[in-house]
Amino acid sequence: MTRRLIIIGGGAGGVLVALHVVRNSRELTTLTIIEPQQRLGEGVAYSTQDDTHLLNVPAEGMSAYSDDPQHFAAWAGCAPDAFVARHRYAAYLRSELAAAVAASNTVHVQHVCDTAVAISPDPLHVTISTGTVIDGDALILAVGNAPPTSPDWVHNFATTRVVNDPWAPRALDAIGAGDQVLCIGTGLTFVDIALSLARRGVRVTGVSRHGLLPMAHAGFGALPALPAAFATPRAVLHWIRTQPDWRAALGALRPATQHIWQGFTPRQQAQFLRLARRHWDIHRHRMSAAVAHEFAHMQATDAIVVRRGDGRQLAESGAFDAVVLCTGPDDAALLTTPPLLALANAGVICPGPHGMGVDTDAVSGQVKDVAGSPVAGLFTVGPLRRGTLWESTAVPEIRDQAEQLATLLVG
Ligand SMILES: Cc1cc2nc3c(=O)[nH]c(=O)nc-3n(C[C@H](O)[C@H](O)[C@H](O)COP(=O)(O)OP(=O)(O)OC[C@H]3O[C@@H](n4cnc5c(N)ncnc54)[C@H](O)[C@@H]3O)c2cc1C
Q1: Would the CB of 9 count as within 6 Å of ligand 1?
Q2: For the whole model, what pTM was predicted?
């Protein structure tokens, strides 16, 4: 009998799962990837065609194969520590998937270029926007983060242009030289968008409650040895602060982060999020040195200004021609919109710890229902596992999850 697997979401996470399923499967399998974007592998992160939007991770951190860390660098023909244009990563994933499919005589892969609008868990099937129903034996949710939600007050603007999704194709085209633009949010998305705008003579102001910018990548030496255990989040933060090089400290923590997170009580996890989330994010998710250098230059010439404050107040000041939302994912929206809404209403899926992602088994990523029981045939990969694992956003972790999931499903 042919096994039927469905993946909802054909960004990096979905393609990595598909790739490892194809390479591992010895039985006849049909693999359906439901993804509205024409090109697989892009998702939110790798769809930009701007050559100056670089990966935030050196090439040696982006391999599709955990046992061959230099694979992506070799494919891209670059040094292991190079930061490659982001769209090349999507091209890499597509080319690896195509090669695996060509070499497989058991797996048939099809890309359904559409959006999944509903999921039935039993019997398992997915309905797409045309009404077509796709039956499966297992379903992998690889939908990434919930998109940011626009705050209500942006709808008040009659004349100011509002860009809700700066990564949408041609989203910034209407903004021209001399325009004053306010970006809400000062994370990695802001850095890319602000530079793209400033290069064409736009005056950019970025604002966030904390006014904190991501730190820059830089080389570091040997990783320090980790203590045997951390009793509390404060102990982790104290340990980082007392290391000679915080980058090396974070590098040492990285492979242990999921384990440390799961060792904390829910209360301690909440304390970490309250105390340290923003500082963790800007140190952990860094920009390349070249991007940091250009950004500093733009700041020095006032082409880009970063402020701490209330975005709404600034937006309503009338000083800006356009407002661009560079805010992060809206976790609260994840289960209130299709395709997860009906599952959530039926108690088949529920929010993950601290409202991040969905509740899943820590090892397999299998969805847990409202009673905490595993839901047969329903799995997750990537940012949906953030509440359970905390570190579940970037390629190394997603790649490992994809390999493990493929082994579980077809290995
Ligand atoms: C701007 C940016 C830059 C980044 N740079 C890096 C980097 O350099 N290195 C790194 O390791 N990580 C980076 N990341 C982290 C990134 O989250 C991961 O690397 C990875 O791309 C996540 O992939 P994903 O497939 O889980 O999610 P996404 O990329 O968000 O893909 C999810 C896909 O699901 C699809 N989808 C959603 N809902 C449905 C539906 N109902 N039906 C069908 N399809 C659906 C979407 O269309 C999308 O294509 C970056 C993130 C961002 C936002």
Answers
A1: yes
A2: 0.96
* Contact residues for 90 (Cβ-Cβ < 8 A; gap 6+): 12, 39, 40, 41, 42, 43, 46, 47
Q: Tell me the CB-side half-sphere exposure of residue 152, using CA atoms within 13 A.
A: 0
The CA 228 to ligand 1 mean position distance, Å, reads: 34
The finding on whether 115 has its CB within 6 A of some atom of ligand 1 is yes
Ligand 1 near 382 CB (within 6 A): yes
3-147+330-410 is classed CATH 3.40.630.30: no
Class of the 152-215+286-325 domain? Answer: alpha beta
As given in the structure block, the two tokens for residue 3 are 């096994």
- Print pLDDT tens along the chain (411 aa): 899 999 999 999 999 999 999 999 999 999 999 999 999 999 999 999 999 999 999 999 999 999 999 999 999 999 999 999 999 999 999 999 999 999 999 999 999 999 999 999 999 999 999 999 999 999 999 999 888 888 888 877 766 789 999 998 899 999 999 999 999 999 999 999 999 999 999 999 999 999 999 999 999 999 999 999 999 999 999 999 999 999 999 999 999 999 999 999 999 999 999 989 999 999 999 999 999 999 999 999 999 999 999 999 999 888 999 999 999 888 888 899 899 998 999 999 999 999 999 999 999 999 999 999 999 999 999 999 999 999 999 999 999 999 999 999 997
Cβ of 11 closer than 6 Å to ligand 1, yes or no, is yes
3-147+330-410 and 152-215+286-325 in the same fold: yes
Please work out whether the CB of residue 43 comes within 6 Å of at least one atom of ligand 1: yes
Q: Which atom of ligand 1 is nearest to the CA of 56?
A: 8
Interval between CA 45 and ligand 1 midpoint (Å): 5
Q: How do the domains of the chain map onto residue ranges?
A: 3-147+330-410, 152-215+286-325, 233-284
Measure Cα distances from 251 to 43, 223, 314 in Å.
Answer: 26, 7, 37
249, amino acid identity: A
Question: Is the beta carbon of 34 within 6 A of some atom in ligand 1?
Answer: yes
